[in-house]
Structure formats: structure tokens, C-alpha cells
Amino acid sequence: MNKIIYDKRGGEKVLSIWEIFVLIIIIGGMVIGVLIFYSAEIDVRDAEANYLYKKIASCLNENGVALNEYFNNDFDIFEYCELNRNIFTDMGEFYFEVSLKDENGNDLREEIFYGNPTFRDTCIIEEGINSGFTKSGKCFKRTEVTKVINNENGEVRKGFFEFITASNNKGDRVQNVAI
User: What kind and span of H or E run contains 68?
Assistant: First the structure.
């Protein structure tokens, strides 16, 4: 009886085939998962345009009151709102525009705009077509109500900030993104 049980070696050959099969499935799954992860593209245009709007709006329209320094002729939006001037070039990936109007639509201050001017035209043209999405970038347009306080006599008037921000920084594949 012992000879029948101990002389059988066929089970080892069958087991090694299943081990190889399981290893192939595990390695194949890992390779497929890595390929899917690294082939994904990142599109951050909408998030960047929205973030740029929030950053500019929060520093110019504090608690619903227009910033007094905004009316100075030497007002530097980059310094005050802590924006990087170098990324807002004529051929760059970003654009922003800020205007302040009174209740009648009259400008209370000259518009401030920087960045790639083609984004503005494209945003305006395609605004009604497909809600701000453009082939050359994502646009974000928002109007905010504000109070404008006159420093000379303390008069408070109602005003409207108009913000247009755009980004064409679509991103890249995951492996090419610098952290």
C-alpha cells in the first residue's frame, strides 16, 4: 500500500502548469493596469480657468466690496493677487480680463487684461455655441455684484465685476507630467 502512495509523481507536473497559468494571469493584469494608467491624458483647462477666476475675484472683491487699491493708476494685479507674470504672455497658455462697471454699464475703471488675446476672441465667439468650451482652451466667465465705496465722500454704489479667464494648458500623459 505504501508503494502505491509514495511512487506517484504525476501530481507535481499538473500543479506546475496551474502555477504558470496563474502567474501569467497576474503578470498580464499588472501590465494592462500599468499601460492604462500611463496612457491616460490629463485635461486641466477647466479647473485652471476656474481657479484663476477664484483667485482674482477673491482678491479684488473682498466680502462683496471692491478693493480700494484697484482704482489706483499704479495698481499691479500680479503683485496684489500673487499671480506669476511670466505665464501670462501673448503666446502663453493663460488669459484673464477684469472689468468693473456701474449699474448703468459704465466703466468705473479701465479693463485689466493679460495673456494670450486670442483666447478672449474665441471665448466670446463660442460662448453661446457650447457654454464656454473652445477648441483652443477652456473659458470661464462670471459676473459678480460688488459695492464700490468712494474714498472722498464715502458714497456707496452698486457695481459689477466681469471676469473672463481662460486656459489652454491641456496637460500631457501621466509619465510626462513634472510633479
Answer: none
Residue 85 lies in domain: 45-171
Pair (8, 86) in one structural domain: no
SS3 label, residue 145: strand
81 CB contacts (<8 Å, ≥6 apart)? 55, 56, 59, 60
51 and 29 in a common domain: no
Number of domains in the chain: 2
pLDDT tens for 71-123 read: 888 888 888 888 888 888 878 888 899 998 988 888 888 888 888 888 777 77
Q: Cell 479684488 sits at which residue?
A: 60
Give me the count of residues in the chain: 179
Q: How far is the C-alpha of 70 from the C-alpha of 87, rounded, in Å?
A: 22
Per-residue DSSP letter, 131: T
For residue 71, how many other CB atoms are within 10 A of its CB?
15
β partners of residue 134 = 137
| Closest residue by Cα to residue 115 from 98, 101, 94 | 94
Is the separation of the CB atoms in 92 and 167 below 8 Å? no
In a domain, 27, yes or no: yes
